[in-house]
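Researcher: Good morning. I'm working through a list of sequences from a screen, and I'd like to move beyond sequence-only analysis. For each chain I'm collecting a predicted structure so we can compare shapes side by side. This is the next one on the list. No need for commentary yet; just the structure.
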Amino acid sequence: MENKTREKLDLLFAALAKNHGVPTAQKLFSASPTKAQVMVDKRAASVDFLTKINVKTVKEREGEKIFGSMVPVIPSRTDTANDNKRKTRALMQLDPSGYVCKSSEFDVHITYEQLDAWAKFPNFNEKFMSYMRRGIALGQIKVGFYGESAAGVTDGDANPNGEDANVGWIQHLRNAGQVITDGAVANKLRLGAGGDYLNLDGMVFDTLQMVDEVHRERDDLVAVIGRDLLAMDKTQIYAGEGTKPSEKMLIETARVSRTYGGLPSMAVPYFPSRGLYVGPLDNLSLYVQETSVRQKVFDNSELDRVQHFNSENDAYVIEDTGASAVIEHKNVQLPGEFAPA
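Model: Good morning. Structure tokens for this chain:
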């Protein structure tokens, strides 16, 4: 490590310790609840998708869900003249299943060589911290979509997408039965001519029918669609409309705005490539137990790297399982992968 880098790194360690009110950042320390919320907010701000869902700290490791979902308030009338009392109704529909935060370790390192390259930048501290925040945030998103269980000891080689790191959003919807798994053939969802769905519109519409009726007319429902399904649809657009230069340019520059099954669509980082989620984005939550946030920065000269150890207790939450639904992305087949009926 160059001397200039060492000076900047020492200043970063000192600033981190001062910010958290501890003697040194090179020994494991806990963040206060207020600092934990600030850390969680900054991490969420590093990825646009996380700003659209609920990312909040919670006091208890397990408990009742925070947000639930809003239900329409139908007006009523009461005969108060005859001493009948007006009755209130719950504004929020809370899911009784609750949440449980699981321990999560986000331990990373940056090599001396990379730090030396950063030392010339005046915002060295922010660059170091922003890389860490974004890396953790993207990992949390991946687990949110792929996580199926919370193993006592994880196996990253066998589960590269964090399948054993925590129970994610899609798995919670599977557990609640809010998933389409079969078409005409068991454990197959065939998309394309001669399949179960001619196009994405039909698949989105069918998934929407899995959403509880009270939520189907909400104005905040979206369809999150995987890249393979969007690519197939783009191919269909090329085939039907892409012969004119102006129309081809719209496709190439991704300015073609599409809705599917009457819902606006969007792509999300690390969403399963053949996945489909229908529901409000704010029905997805990530809870972090505020008293569990701990970290330590360690200069490991034996390996020529700076290691940053981070741990916290996380829970991936569907606020109201009836407000969302998914398809089983593992079962989707595209044209050429099945024999048309």
